[in-house]
Every structure is written in structure tokens, then in C-alpha cells.
Predict the 3D structure of the following.
Amino acid sequence: MSATPASPPSTASAPGHEPEPSTPGPGRKTPGPGRKTPDPQRRTAAGARPSVPPAETLSTPRRSGVALVASLLGFTVITVDVSAVNIALPAIRDSLGSGMSGLQWVVDAYTLMFAALMLSAGALSDRTGARRAYAWGIALFTLASLACALAPDIGVLVAARVAQGAAAAVVMPASLALIRQAYGDARARARAIALWTVGGSVAMAAGPVLGGLLTDSAGWRAVFLLNLPVGAVILALLIRVPRSPRRPAALDIGGQLTAVLALAGLAFAVIEGGHMGWTSGPVLGAAALALASGCAFRVVEARHRQPMVPPALLRDRRVAASLAVGFAVNAAFYGGIFLLGLYYQQLRGMSAIEAGLMFVPMSAVVTATNLVSPRLAERVGRRPVIVAGQLIFTGAMLAMLPLAAHTPVWLVLVLLLPLSVGGALAVPALTALLMDSVPHERAGTASGLLNSLRQTGGALAVAVFGSLLAGPAGVFSLPGMRLGLVMVAALLLATALLARLLLPRG
């Protein structure tokens, strides 16, 4: 729930109802100089409701700024939670008692729910209004963070992470749709989206530093307690954000259920396959569930009148290529953060704070690259920037192959520089390209779809890396790490070629 903000008189409505504004359709004339503007409160002779300005034109620059700050804070806090928890994993293992499988579930319980529910969350944002959906998501995320901090065992922690992931799924598309609503001008919107993306990328890179500091100074539970005051600040800011319009968007329950089952089955098979054995009964059963649920999802979506994954969106080559790139980029980044957190602490014997500080140069480079990316895209086009980012990311995966237990620290930091640049260069241009490729009324749905694929890529990368890293007796496996890096590099190279062929240059 969110408090009702002070709104201009022209946007006033009955309590609990947010009107959907309409815009003049093709061929309609707008009042010229000297012509009288129709009274928006009066109806036409035919009884039709006259068009009213879209929501973004009703926001003042100050309110647009408040909406951007609120969106940025939410995106930042749900992103920090991913990378900060990666650094806290060894402390969680020691405190609650868990093997590699349990640690993988602490990460993937969050990202899987994030990925699966974001498909419906985009439609929920369109249906209920971005501001209202965003407030609900932030409130649930804050409460789930408290449950994580109080978890007495690994099972309760994983369950609370599921709730966190469900809340984050609502927050992500709603935050981007809130920006889409607040900025009507395409150039201003692109810059706002770039800032939003900067916040997420910096949070992902800085999260390990924060996680290490909190874990060593106050314990791993402090990583989750930090979310409580941030959630309160966001809810306070939303009071000043104008109400969002509601747009028609069906909730596809059958599609959502089959998507959750497919992703959960696939993750279980990948995570537990490395521990139980790839031919064990539970693993084969989970793989069969994933396959059957995936087929059922396709059937349900084909028959649904308003599917949560609209076929028209997927037929657009710009959208399809953007989704593939988003999947690969997050697989590389999430997988890299997960791998490095364990590499620093389990193979090199660093403390949590030492491991976190190893990410400081990475954070600085990510910040600088995110600021440069939008300007570079304006000069040379978005496609070259996206492709270049992926190729740099490919090089980053291959550059990490020589890492070993006694690799000099300075060399480790140098080898990680391409990892800092690749995603930070590609993601701002990729997000802006997708938002400009879809109709205004599908902004929330498209955002949810993109981020669902991105989170799925991250979840599966963690599952694969975790299975490969768990050597005999749980010892960190260097051969397993290197195999995972080569697999992700091949994926990035393939999607870079796809982007080069399918995305427009501009």
C-alpha cells in the first residue's frame, strides 16, 4: 500500500482508482493557436470521454526527480542484496551449518523467484499502476529482509530469500516503469534510465565491499538488516510521487505457475546434480519436471488470450536479441561475482572484509563506465556499444583462466578490469534500446521480461559454477572454475554475434 500523494486537480480521482490517461491517436488534431482547448471535465456530444494528457506530462521536474531517486534506491537495494550476500556465504555456512548446495540455494532461492515472478510482475505493474506495485514490493522486501536477519537455520533463511526474491520481482519492473512514466521526453528518459542502470551496476559491484565490511564488523545478519531503513526511506519518498495510470494487462496464472516449476526444476537439477550425481532419481525427476513444465508453459501461452509473454514482443528481433544479450551478460556477471567471492575466501584464505575490498577497483571502473556508456551510445550507436561490451566480457572470462591460489594480488586485480567494463558498457544501452522498442503501454511487461531473462541467466550461472566448483570433499576446484569460465565465454560470444546481426545500429 502507498499513501496518496498530493496531485494536481486534473488528476484527482475516486479513492482506490487511478484513471488511465489516453493520448490522441493517429490522425487526431490538436488545438492550434487561437483555438479553444476543450474542457477535460466535459464530455463530447457523442458521450465519449475526451483525451487527457499522459501521466508523465503531469509530473513536475521536482516530482520526476523524486520518482527517479525512489526508483534508484529500490533498484540499488535489491541489487546490493545479491552481491553482498555472496561475500557473506562462508560466514553463513559457519553460523548455520551448510555445504556448497545450501549456499547455492541461499543465492538462487532469491534469483529464481526474482526471475520467474518478474514475468507476471511486469503485468502487475501495468495493471495496478507502477507506484502502487512498487510500494507493495518495497514493503514486502523490507519485511522479508527482517526474516532473513532473524533466520535460525539454513532452511528458514532459504524460505525468507524466496520471499525476498518475490518482492524484488515486483520492485524491478515497477521501478523502471515509474521512470518511464515520470519522463515524457525521450532524451531525458534515456538519461534517467542510464542513471537507474548506473545505480544497479554500482550496487552489484560495491555490494561485496559492503557485505565484507558488515560481515566482519557486525555479522552476516547485518547485511539484511541494512535493508530496513532504506525501505522506510523509499516508502516515504513515494508519498510525493504522482499516482500511476492503470493499463490493461491480464495476469496469466497458468503461465506463471508453469514458469516457476520449469525454473525451479532446472535449478534443482543443476545444483543437486553436482552433489547427488547426475543420474540420481531426484535429479532426473527435477529435469523431467523442468522439461514438462517448459512444454506446458509454451502450450499455455499459445492458448491464452493475453499471455504474460506476448508473442508479438518476441517476434520483434530487437526484443529477442535484447533478451538473449541480457541473459548472457547477467550469467557472466552474477557467475563471476559468485566465483570470486568463494575464490578469495576459500582458495586464498582471505577474510570477508579483505575479499570485499578486492572489489573496490571493480566498483570504481563500473561507475565510470556506466557514466560513459550512454554518451558513447549517442555518438556511435547502441549496437556497437552493446556488442563491444559483450566482447570485452568474453575477454574477461578468458582472462580469469590463469587464476590460481598464489596468483599475485595485483595481477588478479588487473585481470578483473575487463569484467568491470563489459557489463557496465552494454547494459545501459541495452535497456534504453528495449524501452524505445516497445509501445508505451507495454513498458512494464517488457521490463519484466528483460529482467526475468537476466535473473534467470544469473541463477543458472550460480547453479553451474557451484556444481563445478565443489570438488572432492567440498574443496574449491580450479578445473571446475576454468570449465565454467569457458562455457560463459562461449555464451557471450554467441550472443554478441546475435546482437550484431539483429539489433539496429541507432
